[in-house]
From TrEMBL:
Keywords: Amino-acid biosynthesis, Histidine biosynthesis, Hydrolase, Methionine biosynthesis, Multifunctional enzyme, NADP, One-carbon metabolism, Oxidoreductase, Purine biosynthesis. It catalyses: (6R)-5,10-methylene-5,6,7,8-tetrahydrofolate + NADP(+) = (6R)-5,10-methenyltetrahydrofolate + NADPH; (6R)-5,10-methenyltetrahydrofolate + H2O = (6R)-10-formyltetrahydrofolate + H(+). Homodimer. Catalyzes the oxidation of 5,10-methylenetetrahydrofolate to 5,10-methenyltetrahydrofolate and then the hydrolysis of 5,10-methenyltetrahydrofolate to 10-formyltetrahydrofolate. This is Bifunctional protein FolD. Pfam families: THF_DHG_CYH, THF_DHG_CYH_C. Belongs to the tetrahydrofolate dehydrogenase/cyclohydrolase family. Residues 18-133 form the Tetrahydrofolate dehydrogenase/cyclohydrolase catalytic domain. Its EC number is 1.5.1.5, 3.5.4.9. The gene is folD. It comes from Streptomyces graminofaciens.
């Protein structure tokens, strides 16, 4: 029976790890079966277009990881590499072309894209039915109302992890540290849609530690290495570390947090693999929907 995060018993033993690698592997296996069935029925494979502006080394790595996972899942990947000086208009043109190409079922625009680009204009050039990374306003509306639609991949992956570990957000106090468009904001919306009481913290939040100490579920999504420390974790809380920092360091100081949390995601091996598994799954869902299957 799902456990409400607000009723998990405070613990004095180290937290249980939430194994994102294992869950992601199972999701990709199931996705590969669905992709094979799609190919058998339609004579064409699900296709994900990845778009990268510039050559930021971390982004290059993430896109490569997505392409590798596509191969495992039986998804064709088509990559569009654009120079760093690409304008918003040029990027919008590329995304519009992919949006109208019937051979492409999903579009991933790697983030960040460079300060000169109007990020919202770029994301909105992705057709909602191909928005398998959950970044358009249409997808945000679906997430905030708890309606079917594509979820932002890291937030969607986090919700899957909570479900897999029988954590029911309903009635719990969830604190999201960070308010980015692809992570903090949407994960808060998904938690709210599942009846958590959600607080967002950000750079202007006063006494961050005091707010975090109230949380039954903490989602750290701010991109500040080891910002959240064990002393700020309520005993028995569920701690989700969604921080991507150089050197595979999360936003949570793992060694101290693991001593207080009830459940905790490691970095690496927690939220990261779930991000890509969610992308694979949603790409096949997009392909199925577009062909009316
Ligand atoms: N358009 C998007 N841009 C970005 C997203 C996103 O979901 N959509 N998320 C992040 C980065 N990211 C994917 O793009 C990502 C980061 C990390 C991982 C991951 O699996 N990390 C591994 C460790 C990897 C390693 O060993 O080098 C882990 O945590 O276990 C996946 C995806 C920003 N941009």
């Amino acid at each position: 029976m799902p456990q409400s995060a607000s009723t998990t018993t405070p613990t004095t033993s180290p937290a249980r790890l939430m194994d994102g690698t294992a869950l992601a592997r199972r999701i990709v296996e199931t996705t590969a079966e669905r992709a094979a069935a799609f190919t058998a029925r339609t004579g064409t494979s699900p296709c994900l277009a990845t778009v990268l502006v510039g050559e930021d080394p971390a982004s290059v790595t993430y896109v490569r990881m997505k392409q590798n996972r596509c191969r495992k899942a039986g998804i064709v990947s088509r990559h569009v590499a654009l120079p760093a000086e690409t304008t918003t208009a040029e990027l919008v043109h590329t995304l519009t072309a992919l949006s109208t190409d019937p051979a492409v079922h999903g579009i991933l625009l790697q983030h960040p894209m460079g300060e000169h680009i109007d990020e919202r204009a770029a994301f909105e050039a992705i057709a909602p039915e191909k928005d398998v990374d959950g970044v358009t306003l249409s997808s945000y509306a679906a997430m905030s109302f708890g309606l079917p639609g594509f979820q932002s991949c890291t937030p969607g992956g986090i919700m899957r992890l909570l479900d897999a570990y029988d954590v029911d957000p309903a009635g719990s106090r969830a604190v999201v540290v960070g308010r980015s468009a692809i992570l903090g904001k949407p994960v808060g919306m998904l938690l709210l849609a599942r009846d958590a009481t959600v607080t967002y913290c950000h750079s202007r939040t006063k006494d961050l530690g005091a707010v975090v100490r109230e949380a039954d579920i903490v989602v750290a999504a701010v991109g500040r290495p080891e910002l959240i420390r064990g002393e700020d974790i309520k005993p028995g809380a569920v701690v989700i570390d969604a921080g991507y920092n150089p050197g595979n360091v999360g936003d949570v100081h793992f060694a101290s947090a693991v001593e207080r949390a009830g459940l905790i995601t490691p970095v690496p091996g927690g939220v990261g693999p779930m991000t890509i598994a969610t992308l694979m799954e949603q790409t096949v869902t997009g392909a199925e929907r577009q062909l009316g299957l």
